[in-house]
Amino acid sequence: MDKLKIIKDQFVKKDLPKFGVGDTVKVMTKIPEGTDKVRLHPFEGVVIAKQGSGVSSSFTVRKVSYGEGIERVFPLYSPSIDRIELIRSGKVKRAKLYYLRGKVGKRATKIESKEEKA
After folding, report:
1. Which residues are CB-contacts of 33 (< 8 A; sequence separation ≥ 6)?
2. How far is the C-alpha of 80 from the C-alpha of 27, rounded, in Å?
């Protein structure tokens, strides 16, 4: 049990923002180029799902690029993630937004923000 706690403390990052399903985030991932170079590549989209708990938790981000939907699953505590920026927080009534896969255009990306509802 003690070894599990050491592993959790090693991988858990403290500087992650609080975000939920429906929020628009920009995930900056590290891409190795060569032996010593690392480049940061952004992936900006809507969080459509969060699954798991603890160290093994992950989240799915969906974006529409040139009319084609792209989804990517990120482990939350992955060392390849440099930072996560919260662009816009959205207000949704579902835990999983898989219905966005069938939407086209602005309907696929526009989610009401929490400020617009108030």
Report:
1. 39
2. 10
- Residue 47 pLDDT more than 90? yes
User: What is the CATH classification number for the domain harbouring 24?
Assistant: 2.30.30.790
50 is in which domain, residue-wise? 2-100
Average of per-residue pLDDT values in the chain:
86
- How much of the chain is helix, strand and coil, in % rounded to 5? 20, 45, 35
Considering its fold, how many domains does the chain have in total?
1
Bridge partners of 24? Answer: 46, 88
CA distance 109 to 98: 12
* pLDDT of residue 95 exceeding 90: yes
Please tell me the number of Cα atoms within 13 Å of 61 on its side-chain side: 22
